[in-house]
């Protein structure tokens, strides 16, 4: 199998286009199966045709957030769910309020390459970014200033994750074939895990001692961080692994792949040899080679993934049933995230340079 690395995008393409920050209610419902249809024709006199109860405190069932001048590759809610960060080909991170008019209240600039992934620190005060300029960086959310550049990777950094418990650590995966392990307080890496292939997705287990990585060789490696060795392989995907995420209860792993499937895996210590739980279909990958990501709902009962057909797919995690196929974007949907907390709110990021923030039914 070829180990050729993906070329960094031409980051100069959008620099000449000014950023225009426009927030507005989306006029077309995303969930066509549970749509709120308000007719504005003379035949109905503007009557309410079908009323579906609201399920969130969003200003409207769907909000469109525009302002990026390039493809949006990553989006995350902060730990409170009150704020959103989005990372783009235009080299910037934009910060948004979840509620009200979804105001764009901040912008982080400073990278020389496209931002491919980002994570909020656990205290919500800083954001970690992974970019095509081979860096992992730490940014102060309040001031927009860079706190630290984590230097060591020799090629594009595709993905990062943050430990959920214990001492906060960052892991990153790069086209140089290494997984970096970082202490946010230190510039240089604490350690590296080396492989023979570009790393396109990483995740940290609940205990902080297990790391999961995926790449162009199609299988998922399970690492013991203390011994720096691979202790298991999860096999079943037929193409590059584009995202990984551990479930809220720490017992399952979610993967997404260029083979147009998402899968869940049993990662409990003494599970059966065949660890595949469910295979989720309905989200075709398309022709673009962006790293399309999938995510868990806060309760772990639903999963969502972006798609090359411009939709967001949401499945029941236990049954594998497709619950929603949400339209609205005009380009590949690269990332999808559920809001922390009780409200059924989801945000999606697309190559059409826009975010869609909306509520799901109960």
UniProtKB/TrEMBL annotation:
PROSITE patterns listed in its UniProt record: WD_REPEATS_1, WD_REPEATS_2, WD_REPEATS_REGION
Gene Ontology biological-process annotations: mRNA processing; RNA splicing
Residue segments, region Disordered: 1-36
GO cellular component, one term: U5 snRNP
The keyword GTP-binding appears for this protein: no
Top-level division of the source organism's lineage: Eukaryota
Feature: compositional bias, Basic and acidic residues: 1-10
Stretches forming WD repeats: 65-97, 108-149, 150-183, 199-233, 234-268, 295-325, 326-362
Residues forming coiled coils: none
Record keywords, A-Z: mRNA processing, mRNA splicing, Repeat, WD repeat
One annotated GO molecular function: RNA binding
Designated name of the protein: Uncharacterized protein
């Amino acid at each position: 199998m070829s180990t050729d690395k993906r070329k960094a995008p031409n980051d100069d393409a959008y620099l000449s286009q000014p950023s225009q920050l426009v927030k507005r209610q989306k006029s077309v419902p995303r969930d066509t199966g549970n749509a709120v249809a308000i007719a504005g024709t003379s035949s109905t006199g503007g009557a309410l045709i079908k009323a579906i109860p609201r399920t969130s405190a969003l200003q409207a069932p769907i909000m469109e957030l525009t302002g990026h001048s390039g493809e949006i590759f990553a989006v995350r809610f902060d730990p409170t769910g009150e704020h959103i960060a989005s990372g783009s080909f235009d080299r910037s991170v934009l910060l948004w309020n979840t509620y009200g008019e979804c105001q764009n209240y901040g912008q982080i600039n400073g990278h020389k390459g496209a931002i491919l992934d980002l994570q909020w620190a656990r205290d919500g005060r800083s954001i970690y970014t992974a970019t095509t300029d081979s860096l992992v960086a730490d940014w102060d959310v309040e001031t927009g200033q860079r706190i630290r550049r984590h230097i060591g990777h020799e090629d594009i950094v595709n993905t990062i994750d943050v430990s959920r418990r214990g001492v906060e650590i960052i892991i990153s995966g790069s086209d140089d074939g290494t997984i970096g392990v970082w202490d946010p307080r230190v510039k240089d890496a604490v350690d590296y895990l080396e492989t023979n292939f570009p790393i396109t997705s990483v995740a940290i287990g609940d205990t902080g001692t297990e790391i999961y990585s995926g790449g162009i060789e199609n299988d998922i490696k399970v690492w013991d961080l203390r011994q720096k060795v691979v202790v298991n392989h999860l096999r079943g995907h037929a193409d590059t692994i584009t995202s990984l995420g551990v479930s809220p209860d720490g017992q399952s792993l979610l993967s997404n792949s260029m083979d147009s499937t998402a899968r869940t895996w049993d990662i409990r210590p003494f599970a059966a040899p065949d660890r595949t739980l469910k295979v989720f279909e309905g989200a075709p990958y398309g022709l673009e080679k962006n790293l399309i990501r999938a995510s868990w709902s806060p309760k772990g009962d639903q999963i969502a993934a972006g798609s090359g057909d411009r939709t967001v797919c949401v499945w029941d995690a236990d049954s594998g049933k497709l619950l929603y196929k949400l339209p609205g974007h005009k380009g590949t949907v690269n990332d999808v995230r559920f809001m922390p907390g009780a409200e059924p709110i989801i945000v999606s990021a697309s190559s059409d340079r826009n975010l869609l923030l909306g509520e799901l039914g109960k």
